[in-house]
Design brief:
The chain is α+β, with helices and mostly antiparallel strands and 356 residues long. The protein contains 10 helices and 21 strands. It has 3 domains: 12-87, Uridine Diphospho-n-acetylenolpyruvylglucosamine Reductase, domain 2, CATH 3.30.43; 92-202, Uridine Diphospho-n-acetylenolpyruvylglucosamine Reductase, domain 3; 250-354, Alpha-Beta Complex (Uridine Diphospho-n-acetylenolpyruvylglucosamine Reductase, domain 1), CATH 3.90.78. A hairpin with a 6-residue loop joins strand 19 (307-309) and strand 20. The protein binds uridine-diphosphate-2(N-acetylglucosaminyl) butyric acid (EPU).
């Protein structure tokens, strides 16, 4: 049932109990690209049960809505003329234990804290996903992945507020329709606010160490019979070396997805560019390395004012200081044009780009 509060929108900054409202709020500290932007209203949610009441404010009902976790996968190209909902809910609940644990986690928990907690409890599965920035609630939306693993494999269900139906829904794994950096939540953008994620994690599971340097790193660490936490440490070392730290330099991780192309185009590309990494997919298509193409097109380390392509990893756009959202977006488009001109492949941005 809709809750009719009849409350008028408060001005400035008001603590409403389970959430805080701020008018004309700065988003600069709430996005890891560190670009300046403002939201007409910022609602910082500490209690997900209060979402229905908040969304029912007459002033909010027909305005655009944007949900933020850590803002680690987002580029603002302008102010947001609507309500930004910041999910700050906390809580990790071990629902059942045994060979497999069922764990319900509030959307606002930090992903990396949760991964470390599972490893500390002796559960396996998330070790390759250590150090990924962002919140637990954001993880299923883009089906975060790294080092040969994707979070989808461990997601049993997602609890969300369905804005259209105005009710809490529990979406099971199949309904979430996970794909490469994709899910129902991306395809039906704007419909759901993820409030909690339920994971199932085994105590024992074959480790995934065949991907990009993990085995070499384990050898360097002197580990010959790795446990999940060894793999996590190896991945953490690899990531720290390769990816710029958003706490040090503004960035949103990979700015482009690895494009999926059909087998014929993949063959042609491979013939013309023998060094290009190509990963065949179960559906017959091939994923090709965006980083390799960007580097080969001459963009690695390229800089236009304070907007740049990382010199450590060609997939990452960085803010060297005072780059604006439009400047970073202009650079992204320049990279896309350059790769298209050289390879005939259209890159797609991986983060959500707001305002274009
Ligand atoms: N490469 C280059 N130049 C570079 C970097 C990489 O040519 O500057 C080539 C190398 O040949 C390398 C290949 O690209 O073998 C793949 O590189 P990497 O292993 O770093 O992986 P990626 O495909 O570029 C993906 C994810 C990352 C994830 C890494 C590691 C996407 C869009 N990105 O990158 O995820 O950490 O694999 O598993 O799928 C993110 O999504 O924000 C993210 C960082």
């Amino acid at each position: 049932m809709p809750v009719e509060t009849g409350t008028q929108m408060p001005a400035q900054r008001v603590d409403m109990g389970g959430y805080t409202l701020t008018e004309n709020a700065s988003l600069a500290a709430l996005n890891t690209m560190r670009v300046a932007a403002r939201a007409s209203l910022l609602a910082d949610i500490r209690d997900a049960a209060r979402l229905p009441e908040l969304l029912d404010f007459p002033a909010l009902r027909h305005r655009p809505l944007l949900v933020l976790g850590e803002g680690s996968n987002m580029l603002f190209t302008g102010d947001f003329d609507g309500t930004v909902v910041l999910m700050s809910t906390r809580g990790v609940q071990l629902e059942s234990e045994g060979d497999r644990a069922r764990i319900a986690v509030a959307a606002g928990e930090r992903w990396d804290d949760f991964v470390r907690w599972t490893l500390g409890q002796g559960y396996a599965g998330l070790e390759n996903l250590i150090l990924i920035p962002g919140t637990v609630g954001a993880a299923p939306i883009q089906n975060i992945g790294a080092y040969g693993c994707e979070v989808a494999e461990f997601v049993e269900s997602v609890e969300a507020w369905d804005i259209r139906e105005r009710r809490v829904v529990m979406l099971d794994h199949a309904t979430c329709a996970f794909g490469y950096r994709d899910s129902l939540f991306k395809r039906e953008a704007g419909r759901y606010i993820v409030t909690a994620v339920r994971f199932v994690l085994p105590r024992n599971r074959p480790l995934r160490t065949d991907y990009a340097g993990i085995e070499d790193e384990l050898r360097r660490m002197g580990v010959d019979r790795p446990a999940p936490y060894h793999v996590a440490e190896a991945v953490a070392r690899l990531r720290t070396r390769k990816l710029p730290d958003p706490a040090v330099i503004g960035n949103a991780g990979s700015f482009f997805k690895n494009p999926l192309v059909d087998a014929a185009l993949a063959d042609a590309l491979r013939r013309e560019h023998p060094g290009l990494p190509v990963w065949p997919q179960p559906d017959g298509r091939c994923k090709v390395s965006a980083a390799w193409m960007i580097e080969s097109a001459g963009f690695k380390g390229f800089r236009e004012g304070d907007a740049g392509v990382s010199n450590r990893h060609a997939l990452v756009l960085v803010n060297h200081g005072a780059a604006t959202g439009p400047q970073l977006w202009a650079l992204a488009q320049q990279v896309m044009r350059g790769v298209h001109a050289k390879f005939g492949v259209q890159l797609e941005p991986e983060p959500v780009v707001i305002g274009v």
